[in-house]
Design brief:
- This protein is an alpha/beta fold and 318 residues long.
- Helices cover 27% and strands 22% of the residues.
- The protein contains 7 helices and 10 strands.
Length: 318
């Protein structure tokens, strides 16, 4: 009898585990768009036990084949995408060439620049140009292009509510992806460069909002890939990043190739983020923004920056 009870208990535990793993992410069920992946090859399989199915409607995943296959995890980057491992900073306005030269005395060797997008807080970039990009690249800096487009309908930040995604998220995502590519070309970022979509924190548990946001992100990713660039994604670890992880576990296609997660007031790390499986977006496809709005002074110049640890793609510069 004791053995029978143990067997029944194990069966019930496995059944519960199956239910948890087969849950669809918020917004997955109504995600629009084509059903075949664009430029990225088919990802490798999730190292979950093959006996545990991940059941998601085909319309949600954008995938072909059986809906009972294990969740997909890793998509390979195209050949020729450069990467950098080390410290990076980003700041609202790209510093002058002279400041970037002086900051060579810092620990940082990569810089994030907000090069385009209607949602940018600093739309005026007096220094950012093709010449600036070429000059800092020659100094040894690696560049992370950030695009701040339309924001989630349930974005938390008040200053982003005026640029929320509209009623046609798929077509809007494609349109803004083309804008991102045009802006990248204008300042000299070549194909096979990453373009990081900045999506500020939002209430991803709201299903309607999650559907809209996921559709926009997927469309943006697909179109960026179509033009030969690598789609990245920046958001808070506890909202946008967690939403993307749930979508990845459910087998949703057209997700970002690189994950830039913001979790402040913690030690910098790449593979201990609670919102991400250590097997997803690896290797060389993660950035951790671990501190924000801090002042640093190097070479006699002070900047207000966000601090990052990264092992991820950087721009190819003309």
């Amino acid at each position: 009898m004791r053995h029978q009870k143990m067997i029944i208990g194990l069966v019930l535990a496995l059944a519960t585990l199956t239910v948890d793993l087969t849950a669809s992410p918020p917004g997955a069920a109504a995600a629009p768009g084509p059903t075949r992946a664009a430029a990225d090859p088919v990802p490798a399989a999730d190292p979950l036990p093959v006996s545990v199915p991940v059941s998601v409607p085909a319309a949600a995943t954008g995938a072909t084949g059986s809906a009972t296959q294990p969740a997909r995890l890793r998509a390979r980057l195209p050949a020729g995408v450069p990467s950098f491992r080390g410290r990076a900073f980003d700041t609202c306005i790209a510093p002058s060439v002279d400041t970037m030269r002086r900051w060579r005395s810092s620990q940082y060797r990569a810089v994030g620049v907000y090069y385009a997008g209607r949602g940018r807080a600093c739309k005026k970039q007096p220094h950012l140009s093709r010449s600036w990009v070429r000059s800092v690249h020659r100094m040894g800096w690696r560049v992370l292009p950030l695009y701040v487009g339309s924001q989630s309908p349930c974005v938390f930040a008040k200053n982003k509510k005026g640029v929320r995604i509209g009623r046609s998220p798929w077509s809007q995502g494609k349109r803004e992806a083309r804008d991102a590519v045009r802006g990248a070309k204008a300042v000299g970022f070549r194909t096979r460069s990453p373009l990081y979509l900045d999506m500020e924190a939002y209430a991803y548990r709201k299903k309607s909002c999650a559907r809209t946001t996921l559709a926009f992100v997927r469309a943006w990713d697909r179109e960026v890939r179509r033009f030969g660039y690598v789609p990245g994604f920046y958001s808070s670890a506890d909202s946008g990043v967690r939403h993307m992880e749930l979508s990845r576990r459910a087998g949703v296609r057209d997700l970002p190739s690189v994950m830039w997660f913001a979790r402040w007031r913690t030690r910098p790390h790449l593979y201990r983020e609670p919102s991400l499986s250590r097997y997803g977006w690896s290797p060389a496809r993660r950035i951790h923004q671990y501190a924000g709005n801090v002042k640093e002074r190097h070479g006699g110049r002070t900047l207000v920056i966000d601090r990052n640890l990264m092992h991820a793609p950087v721009a190819r510069v003309r």
